[in-house]
Amino acid sequence: MKVSVITVCYNDRSGLEKTIKSVLSQRGVELDYIIMDGGSTDGSKGLVDQYRSLVAHAISEKDQGVFDAMNKGLNRAIGEYVIFMNSGDYFLQEDSLAKLTRGAEHYPDFIYGDIYFEYKEGRRKHIKFPERLRLSGLFNHFLPHQATLTKRQLLVDRGGYDLRYKFIADSAFIWNAIVNDHSSYQHVNEIISVCEFGGLSTDVNRNGDAMQQERLRFYQEKFPMVYEDYLELYELRKFKKAHFVNERPTLLERIKNKLK
């Protein structure tokens, strides 16, 4: 089975090199490797040139954002499955990709594993995904593109990722495929990749509100039957966060008073 690995990068030379080395170290699988650099100015383009002879395509050009770059990579891919391993993320082991492909017993539309989130201080958090996908789970955790093989033709038939969404285009695609089209999937009980926390979809402090607004718009337009459920869940989360933040000083004051 041939797998297309697509790496998207913009001004992240150190992260890009880590990702490239990880992808090229993969064993036991036929690779079709594509690197899409968005016209970086930090030396990433020179790094891409260094590895040009080892990859199928190495492109450095302006794009309209990460999902546009991912679509451009998809248009050049020839593998039966694709996986997106963007700069800063990397496979946990040299046989991680082979472990995913071996999980394709019946060649489902999606094959996904687990990930580590890696924080700046080096701490890791294991994120385990369920064997069976449910709506409640999809509300909270979307399949990680760094550990998910997607049938290329499935993405191609949908025209790639919907560029109307800046933050949740991959999540929107998975929702449409699994909930609307009943696409098949299979979980592989292995930690596949290490994902840098703080990327576009994980930087909650910087992008959290914008992501939530996109999700609300997506559910309202595409899945009105679950919009109210998600809105209720969203409001509950906001209440819990506000309640915790507002109550915390009061609790500290109580402790101080008891110590006086």
Essential attributes:
disordered C terminus; 45% helix; 260 residues; single chain; nine-stranded mixed beta sheet; alpha/beta
Topology, element by element:
Layout: E1 2-9, H1 13-24, E2 30-37, H2 44-50, E3 57-60, H3 66-76, E4 81-84, E5 90-91, H4 96-102, E6 110-118, E7 124-127, H5 135-140, E8 148-151, H6 152-157, H7 169-180, E9 185-196, H8 204-222, H9 224-259
Parallel strand pairs: 1-2, 1-4, 2-3, 6-9
Antiparallel strand pairs: 4-8, 5-9, 6-7, 6-8
Helix pairs in contact: 8-9
What does this structure look like?
- This protein is globular.
- Mean pLDDT is 86; it is low at 245-260.
- Helix 2 (44-50) links the parallel strand 2 and strand 3.
- The chain is of the alpha/beta class and 260 residues long.
- Helix 8 (204-222) runs antiparallel to helix 9.
- The chain has a single domain (2-203), classed as Spore Coat Polysaccharide Biosynthesis Protein SpsA, Chain A (Alpha-Beta Complex).
- Strands 1, 2, 3, 4, 5, 6, 7, 8 and 9 form a 9-stranded mixed beta sheet that branches.
- It is 45% helix and 21% strand.
- The protein has helices at residues 13-24, 44-50, 66-76, 96-102, 135-140, 152-157, 169-180, 204-222, 224-259; strands spanning 2-9, 30-37, 57-60, 81-84, 90-91, 110-118, 124-127, 148-151, 185-196.
- The N and C termini lie far apart (70 Å).
